[in-house]
Amino acid sequence: MKSLLTRFEVRRTPSIILVLLLWVLLHFVFILQFNNLCWADSLPPDYAPVLACAVFLCCLAEGVLLGLLAGLAKGRALRRFIFIVPVYLYFLLICVSWALFKFGIGFLDADILRAFLVDTTAILRHFSALELLIAALALLGPLFPVLLFLMLSPTYARLRNARPAAISFLVLAALSFVMLRLVPSRFGPAEQRAFRAAISHGVLPSLGLFWSPLLIPVHEPTAPNLQAELTPRYSLEEYQRRLALPRHRPDIFVVIVEALRSDMVNESVDGQYVMPNLRKLAQTGTLLDSVYAQSTESAYSMTSIVTGLYPMKFGVRDTFVNLGYPHERVYDVLSAGGYRAGFFSSANENWQNMANLTNSTHLDPFFHSESDPASAVVMGALDDAFSHAVNQGMLKTGKLDDAVTVRRFIDWLKSSREDKPQKPLFAVLSLQASHFPYQQGVNIPAVFAPSELTAEERAQTSFLGYPPKLAPKMKNRYRNSLRYIDGLLGEIVTFLQSSEQFKDSILLVTGDHGELFHDHDLVTHGSSLFNLTMSVPVVLYHPEGSLRIAAPQHRLIDLAPTIVDLAGLPPYENFQGQSLVSGTREEPVFSSLEGLVMQDAVIFRGMKLIFDRRAETYSLYDVQSDFGEKNKLPVDDSPRVLCLKELLASFRARQLTYFRAFDLYSKYFPPHHGTLPPACQ
Questions:
Q1: Pick from 53, 131, 145: nearest CA to 90
Q2: Has this prediction a pTM greater than 0.85?
Q3: Is 674 a residue whose pLDDT tops 60?
């Protein structure tokens, strides 16, 4: 040991470089493993290199500081104790932080640390006894890297050797300050907020715990008295203990059709209906022809339907990696009510980490394309981002033919009835043929023509754009894909109606968002919050016929509480919507995008306000008389505009305050947004 230390004392430069490389490599391996640099998706292109450089400089500064402290630890016992303890505690905090992130709670920050000190059980209750035992043993883990630093770091026992390291640390800290504070100042306020939110949300443990509070004060809106409005949280187990199960619990099945626009239920071309089976179902049941999605892209909208939570949570995109916030799904609640639940998706639910939210231990089964890789279709190049993820191995498979998914769903219905005939069933089906380019390796009959693309036209086509002259062809492809899904929907209805055991089942059909075909000079979805991408139909087939809808506003976030209501179970407060059947609160419609664009929208009393966070601009429309939003209105200081602005500001402040405060979301249910600000009263 002595010779090893002596060897490294002589070669100070190589040893300090080795220490720095080990430290930087450690952090970047963790980032690539757990975070996948997903935070960069929410930032403008100019910000990614700035943030990457800042992270690298912070890692270097930490490495120099730790090497300095470890070197100064040589000498008397008291001196070693003084300098080793901070190094050990620092390593301990970093290791604990990565462990918390791995378990979905999020990086250790000042808020979580304060909550832990005040109420230790607030964090410990997230872990099982085995996990706590492993964590206790892991507390000794940081001793190894501390000893490694003591062996590998140069000896700074003399002041003349310590001074260069101290100066190096100060220089690196100053450079980090410039990168994190001064360089972003030349950008607009919206980009600065996104930058700061990305830093504090989950780039690096030490950034959230030490660097960010010191160098980057977060200027996000807050709701100071939010706690007084919140309902104390109780667990699903407590909810189950309170239940008095109804005598009859109907089977409930939800079909979510990708990109189903609200006008497609009654759409006809040359006398042929695009979705005749869905139209017939709507005529015998209940049709809500304009229900607003809480986002216009699948990852946000789909998970919002399933969890009943608004997608806006952090000020940057939720990548479904840090899932410390409570997120009970609708089938988790139904499972407490005695339901057996299944999830069937033609998509690859690992796309954009959606499976982290859609999957659950209460599901039997969780079926998606990676569950049946042999049936997965070959992805075409037109859906470029998804195809790239499949071709590069980031996803194991593409999507499934919807016929495979429907067949697996019907087989599950049959086997479930044979296995446990008295247990009520619930299932979610996600059908994907209608996703751009509306024919992904599946043989879809061309009912509506022309729809075939030439090689030249394919070369001009991608998810983000294609020439306006191709819009009619693309819309026919879209209609054909919906017609294909409609045929499968007919098979489901026929099976349910022909089976004595399912004659009293409830069937709900909806879309996750709409679709554009050069409307507003845009295509596909995920790039705007216009009505044609926000508005979807909801068709509800109930054995008793048409249902009375009480809620004044219709939102997809209301589906989870509606399903629980239809099952005869009491409300569960973690859902931020209200039942469409029994809810009567006047609540605005909120929708958000945090990807291709950063936008928020609110619809209230026939008026709609869209706020672009990057451009810091507003757009106003009277959607009651101008549903297609063809006429933009002036954004003035009139009472109706001030009302909409206050609604958006209040919504954002309450969401961010709740989801970034561990002592709030660990003890209280999320806020409801029915409280109107003074300007709206």
A1: 145
A2: yes
A3: yes
DSSP 469: G
Element at 384 (helix H, strand E): helix 384-391
User: Any alpha helices (H) in 499-622, and if so which ranges?
Assistant: 531-534, 559-566
Between residues 596 and 305, the one the model is more confident about = 305
Query: Collapsing DSSP states into helix, strand and coil, what is residue 105?
Result: coil
Cα dist. 522→412, 440, 453, 532, 612 in Å? 40, 21, 19, 11, 16
Question: How do residues 27-56 score in pLDDT, each as one tens digit?
Answer: 666 665 554 444 555 566 666 677 777 777
Pick from 219, 172, 186, 173: nearest CA to 47: 186
- Output the six-digit token pair for 34: 């757990």
End-to-end C-alpha distance for the chain, whole angstroms: 76
Q: 595-623 in b/e burial notation, b at 16+ Cβ within 10 A?
A: bbebbbbbbbeebbbbbbbbeeeebbbeb
Question: Quick one: which of 558, 642, 563, 559 has its CA closest to 607?
Answer: 642
Residues 190, 436: Cα–Cα separation, whole Å:
31
Mean pLDDT of the chain: 83
Of 249, 250, 254, the C-alpha closest to 539 is 254
Which residues are CB-contacts of 674 (< 8 A; sequence separation ≥ 6)? 585, 586, 587
**What string of DSSP letters covers 25-69?**
HHHHHHIIIIITTGGGGGS-TTHHHHHHHHHHHHHHHHHHHHHHH
Contact 250, 504 (CB under 8 A): yes
More confident residue, 553 or 473: 473
Angle among Cα 339, 345, 351 to the nearest 5 degrees reads 120
Q: Which two tokens stand for residue 371?
A: 């569950």
**Rounded (5°) CA angle 595-94-164:** 105
